[in-house]
């Protein structure tokens, strides 16, 4: 189980070996990618998908546009040239015309979502959509890019019949409050960071196009993100989470009370998450949490330490602990001056006795 599933990195490995794979994730676009990447596709389904992809290519020029499929996000046109905007709508119209709700449509929508950034004017390098004024980017052509990505996806699922389990059993949307249908042996996750860059905004163009997001939906998902500043207004009991946080980052409370509060709420949310995972685990089961530290207003926040102490209070025992220096920062989330560069990742191996 991964209770912060994201786009499914852990699940993609897990479906090969585990009897069942469980997940919790609040972001609908991430859920779509994770589902498509872990489901089993039969030969028939793969054949049907391949046929539909070539059909889309063949009839693209004459495809009609459905206005009600346009993304409902303010200023979305800003991010695209006219031709690509219209071609994206054409492609989405074709997908909805040719498929019913279900696996095949999900597959095509995931591939569609994957081409959005490349076909937009937004930089590839920055995670958050951003249009450079200095260097003009040449957006990819919609149909070509779709055909390329779809064929990559088809290759990727061609072996999925061999997997031990079929897709993810979704156990809920909120990692701080869920119950599972069956007890699990192992949970592993990398939770969000305090004050991290806002994931929801990073994927807003994709979410808007695949139809899971308008301005309101994006706000709802953002407000659910652990570590988001907006959550600091949540009431937190003055209990051990508070005193452990204060012990490790008391200095921050004097420098910047609001950011201290954001951190406390983050740790309180992690407490709830660890409680939910504790309930989900069978006795003797493990919870591995991979997390980096943060620096907030010049104060080092030993996130792993605080989480470890909270886990101890909840009844977890140690299995293992290790850390490693992050060698490749290309895939890590840039956080400007907000969180500091993450140098180490810590793996906390907890066990439910
Ligand atoms: C660090 S990412 C996980 C990355 C994942 N390992 C992957 O490979 O994609 C954290 C994920 O937690 C999700 N998340 C944040 N707050 C959440 C909450 N309260 N409930 C459920 N999911 C949440 C975010 O949407 C994000 O996808």
UniProtKB/TrEMBL annotation:
Domain of life, per the record? Bacteria
Please name the PROSITE patterns in this protein's record: N4_MTASE (PS00093)
**What InterPro entries does the record tag this protein with?**
MeTrfase_CN4_CS, SAM-dependent_MTases_sf
The top EC class, named as a word, is transferase
Give the stretches traversing the membrane.
none
Q: Which reaction does it catalyse?
A: a 2'-deoxycytidine in DNA + S-adenosyl-L-methionine = an N(4)-methyl-2'-deoxycytidine in DNA + S-adenosyl-L-homocysteine + H(+)
What Gene3D superfamilies would the database entry show?
Vaccinia Virus protein VP39 (3.40.50.150)
Q: What are the record keywords, sorted?
A: Methyltransferase, Restriction system, S-adenosyl-L-methionine, Transferase
What biological process terms from GO does the record include?
DNA restriction-modification system; methylation
- What EC numbers are recorded for this enzyme? 2.1.1.113
From the UniProt record, which GO molecular function terms apply?
DNA binding; site-specific DNA-methyltransferase (cytosine-N4-specific) activity
Similarity remark: Belongs to the N(4)/N(6)-methyltransferase family. N(4) subfamily.
What is the protein's given name? site-specific DNA-methyltransferase (cytosine-N(4)-specific)
Species the sequence originates in: Dinoroseobacter shibae (strain DSM 16493 / NCIMB 14021 / DFL 12)
């Amino acid at each position: 189980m991964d209770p912060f599933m994201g786009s499914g990195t852990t699940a993609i490995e897990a479906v090969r070996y585990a009897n069942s794979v469980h997940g919790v994730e609040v972001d609908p676009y991430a859920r779509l990618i994770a589902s498509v990447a872990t489901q089993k596709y039969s030969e028939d389904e793969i054949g049907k998908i391949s046929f539909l992809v070539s059909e889309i290519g063949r009839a693209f020029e004459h495809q009609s546009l459905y206005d009600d499929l346009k993304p409902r996000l303010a200023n979305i046109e800003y991010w695209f040239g006219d031709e690509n905007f219209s071609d994206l709508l054409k492609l989405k119209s074709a997908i909805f015309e040719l498929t019913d709700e279900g696996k095949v449509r999900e597959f095509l929508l995931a591939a569609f979502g994957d081409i959005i950034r490349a076909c937009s004017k937004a930089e590839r390098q920055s995670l958050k959509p951003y249009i450079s004024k200095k260097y003009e980017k040449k957006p990819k052509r919609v149909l070509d890019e779709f055909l390329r990505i779809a064929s990559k996806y088809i290759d990727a699922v061609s072996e999925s019949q061999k997997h031990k389990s079929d897709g993810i059993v979704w156990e809920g949307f909120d990692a701080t409050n869920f119950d599972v249908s069956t007890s699990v042996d192992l949970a592993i996750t990398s939770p969000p960071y305090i004050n991290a860059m806002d994931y929801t905004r990073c994927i807003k163009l994709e979410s808007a196009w695949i139809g899971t997001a308008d301005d309101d939906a994006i706000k709802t998902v953002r407000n659910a993100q652990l570590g988001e500043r907006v959550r600091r207004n949540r009431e937190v009991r003055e209990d051990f989470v508070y005193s452990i946080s204060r012990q490790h980052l008391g200095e921050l409370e004097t420098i910047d009370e609001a950011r201290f509060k954001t951190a406390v709420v983050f740790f309180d949310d992690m407490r709830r998450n660890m409680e939910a995972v504790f309930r989900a685990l069978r006795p003797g089961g493990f919870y591995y949490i991979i997390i980096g530290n943060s620096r907030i207003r010049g104060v080092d926040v030993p996130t792993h330490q605080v989480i470890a102490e909270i886990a101890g209070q909840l009844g977890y025992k140690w299995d293992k602990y290790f850390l490693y220096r992050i060698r490749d920062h290309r895939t890590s989330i840039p956080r400007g001056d907000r969180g500091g560069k993450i140098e180490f990742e810590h793996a906390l191996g907890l066990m439910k006795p």
